[in-house]
Amino acid sequence: MSTPDQYSYGTLVGWTTQDLGSKVVIRLQSVTTPTPHSESDVHSAYFMMDKNQAVQLGHCLYELAGQRAPATRKRFWLRRLFGN
Predict the structure, then answer these.
(1) Cα distance between residue 5 and residue 28, in whole Å
(2) Adjacency order of strands within the sheet including 23-31
(3) Peptide bond preceding 70: is omega within 30 degrees of 0, i.e. cis?
(4) Measuring CA to CA, which of 33, 34, 54, 67 is 20 to 30 A from 22?
(5) What does the pLDDT look like over 31-61, one tens digit per residue?
(6) CB within 8 A of 4, min separation 6: which ones?
(7) At residue 64, what are phi and psi to the nearest 5 degrees?
(8) Mind listing the pLDDT tens digit for each residue in 5-28?
């Protein structure tokens, strides 16, 4: 079990993602110092997860923000073509 002094805290200042097929890599960048920040103030952490975990994380963040995930747009031209 982890103790509180084993955690690192910071303010999220950026992120990037990389699609690796069935996996996703997320790089989270954070700072622990007030602005202005130098390049050495920015710390990066990399996390690899499968796409199901990425979807679960996304849904969790939407819920925490009190938002809904964007609805996917239906392809209306396909519906017209096939009469659905």
Answers:
(1) 20
(2) 11-19, 23-31, 43-50
(3) no
(4) 67
(5) 999 999 999 999 999 999 999 999 999 999 9
(6) none
(7) -60, -35
(8) 678 889 999 999 999 999 999 999
Please give the Cα distance from 24 to 48 (Å, whole number): 6
The rounded distance, in Å, linking the Cα atoms of 22 and 55 is 12
Asked if residue 24 lies in contact with residue 17, where contact means CB atoms within 8 angstroms, the answer is: yes
Entry pTM: 0.72
Q: Which residue type sits at 80? A: R
Can you read off the two tokens belonging to residue 6? 């084993």
Both tokens of 74, joined, read 């239906």
3-state secondary structure the chain: CCCHHHCCCCEEEEEEEEECCCEEEEEEEEECCCCCCCHHHCEEEEEEEEHHHHHHHHHHHHHHCCCCCCCCCCCHHHHHHHCC
Amino acid (1-letter code) at residue 53: Q
Residue showing tokens 């073509």:
81
